[in-house]
Input
Amino acid sequence: MLLITCPWCGPRAESEFTCGGEADIARPLHPETLTDEAWGEYLFMRRNTRGLHREQWYHSFGCRRWFVVERDTVTYEVRAVDGPTPAAGSAR
Amino acid sequence: MSRYSIFTLVRNALSYHEGWERAWRSPQPKREYDVVIVGGGGHGLATAYYLAKEHGVRNVAVLEKGWLGGGNTARNTTIVRSNYLWDESARLYEKSLRLFETLSQELNYNVMFSQRGVMNLAHTLQEVRDTERRINANHLNGIDAELLTPEQVKEIVPIINLKSRYPVLGASFQRRGGVARHDAVAWGFARAADAYGVDIIQNCPVTGIRREGGAVSGVDTPKGYIKAKKVGVVAAGHSSVIASMAGIRLPLESRPLQALVSEPLKPVLNTVVMSNAVHAYISQADKGDLVIGAGTDQYNGYGQRGSFQVIEHALQAVVELFPVFSRVRMNRQWAGIVDIAPDACPIISRTHVRGLYFNCGWGTGGFKATPGSGWVFAHTLARDEPHALNAPFSLDRFCSGHLIDEHGAAGVAH
Output
């Protein structure tokens, strides 16, 4: 189980959190102007990084706030925790 | 390759089993191949076998970064079934199940396919209705499926607790489903492919994919550059990593999927029991271990291990359904890295790089598809176009929007 340091609540067990997937994916402002490829790219394509990965987490059984975690997907080490990004909150 | 039979067994017994020949060679890679397959798991080896057998393409190499079948092929819960809801999936998995039915004879290798039935429990009224719908859909696709009452469930699995926290209200039962020995499937395909002249090269990771003028030209490995007219990538959890070498993005996320086995017990469970609602699936291996599948972790990971609460959750459900297992001790626990597509369906497809093909996205349920996946991918590689069975599973569905949404029907339990 991961130990994640919530920026507001401090270190808590992973089971208090919900993972919201890859961070920094901004919803296009004008979807109606996009091609199908570009829309599919936004909806479905992912980096799926092996190594350092920026991802969104939600403290669902705590302060219920979103934040960004930088985590190594091989060692699972949590490197850094940032506050919310503009894309946060739109996931899931 | 000498055929395995009762006679070779007796002959080798007389020489204390010291005279068996190796099941496959360990060759050095040639400079050039017609087809290079990246990934020596079950799917990759099956692809090589069917390329040689069905399409006469025998100048083939399978490059495996570790050892044969050491990834997800060795890490699944060995369940084989084809009772999928949607037509596209049902046809693909049924093709695979049919190949499984004659696989031991075809490969001359005992894959220990045991059609002991697969039972999918329903715990709510809605789930019973969904199960009825899926059974009807299966019948329309020529796939065997039965609806069981709770009493019939109890008759087949006497140790089940019907009045659990989420009571068992019914089940679907596919009698032709069952389990197979996962390692044997990989070894059988490896041996049969090798006999056709396919080079199986272990400890040989692909570190780069070279392209010339929009077409693939070969792969870089620690054993040198290998030229290839076509490259088929069957790398499961590492598909995105290989794809990025060719500048391709895939709609995949790789996550740990955990499973565990218990100490060996006397025969107590003679079928496969799966439950989507409480998320547990369990069967008993031929040597007596209970084989239990847990869920995927919520985060991306390549570490082949997952978080404890996931297996805890699966075991809570198993113990609730089978109180008799409450004091069984678990022997081993592990994770495989599964590549999950947004619709929980595979991608068996050409790409915008000519000669580069991907077979990935099998997510949490790829083992059952091993022969079928290899069969359709071999067709796709040899003819440069998909077979009718895998045409719906191409990469462009993530642009057209024609997803095959098996998440509700099969995304959890495999």
Notes: DSSP finds twelve helices and 18 strands in chain B. Confidence is low (pLDDT under 50) at residues 409-414 of chain B. The first strand of chain B starts at residue 32 and ends at 38. Residues 251 and 341 of chain B are 6 Å apart (CA to CA).
